[in-house]
Fold this sequence. Notes:
Layout: H1 3-26, H2 30-43, H3 46-54, E1 58-70, E2 84-99, E3 103-106, H4 108-111, E4 116-120, E5 126-128, E6 131-135, E7 140-144, E8 166-171, E9 184-197, E10 206-212, E11 224-226, E12 232-241, E13 245-253, H5 254-267, E14 272-273, E15 276-280, H6 283-289, E16 297-302, H7 307-310, E17 318-322, E18 325-326, H8 330-336, E19 345-352, E20 356-363, E21 365-366
Antiparallel strand pairs: 1-2, 1-4, 2-3, 3-7, 4-5, 6-7, 8-9, 8-11, 9-10, 10-13, 11-12, 12-13, 14-21, 15-16, 16-17, 17-18, 17-19, 19-20
Amino acid sequence: MSAVKRTLLILLSGIVIGLALFPMLNRPSPNTSATIESIETSRRNAIVRAIEHAAPAVVSVNTVYDRSYPRYPDRFFEPFDPYSDMQRIPGIGSGFVIQADGYILTSSHVVDGAQEIFVTFPDGRRFDVLDVFIDRQWDLAVVQIDADSLYVPQMGISESVIIGEWAIALGNPFGLHFEDLNPTATVGVISAVDRIVRPEQNARAHKGMIQTDASINPGNSGGPLVNSLGRVIGVNSFIFSQGGSLGIGFAVPIDRAIEVACQLIDQGSREFWTGLDIHNLNPYIARTLGVPTIKGALITVVDPLSPGESAGLLSGDVIVMVNNKQANSADEVVDAFRYAAVGDTFHLKILRARDRLFDAQLVLEADPRSE
């Protein structure tokens, strides 16, 4: 046999053997299959399962606000123009089911003052809101829809929240802008608990808040904060931001949120009105007003025909005691009223000018904004 024929025979033999062995070489080994199966299993981790448990109860809360604007935005023409242009402004928020018979928890700032409110479920069902119950003290609201047999997620226990455990913020930050209505999930950890937070300078402090670095984007407000077991541990409320996310978000603990929600459902909105604006004192303000202390709460505004006016209070007065308990700051005065209801009477000790102390009886009335 010539050398050329021998070479061709060897090549053909190699090709035949290669074709025969090719399927065997490409067949996954038992070890490879086990690895793939392990990866698939690990993908369905605790966070994935937690989202699956809670997501069906999360809704998009869509609102419409009417805003009027002067037709001629100029001070000179405004007194002569009794007409204004009306603009309808959409709003977006989130919420989640807390009772199967149609009650949904959200944030009060999501729905407060809205002329129209409707909620949309991940499966596309849309419901107009029948009633709204608001508690501005805790930035919480309950909206009622005509539905039953709704899915309710499992609630956690606020005291069991652990600093450093996984935290999942669920919500609909873009509302109906996405055709897919499933909630968006962002993941972080519990950064701190029992925080005292003042969102803005001179604003009242929020106490007992849960802090998380899970992103709470605009539109996520009112959605649930969930732990790795899929249990709701808080209601997403607000973030600290300077033009972008700083990884500092806050949620109302679920125990307090459910307590407030049950009160709203059973008794309706219990919003009261004092007609007072109060602020903390500082040495400069105290000197200017001739007040011999920087402790207490300075009354800066007394609304006409308000409970504050009926109690004989004036701008410049300082509240130094509430119900026989010393009040060292505006925050302490707010705390004294935190669990108050319409009709309650508060006994105030008032400092007026340099050394005049007198007692005042403040009777709480229904907040006109709740009508």
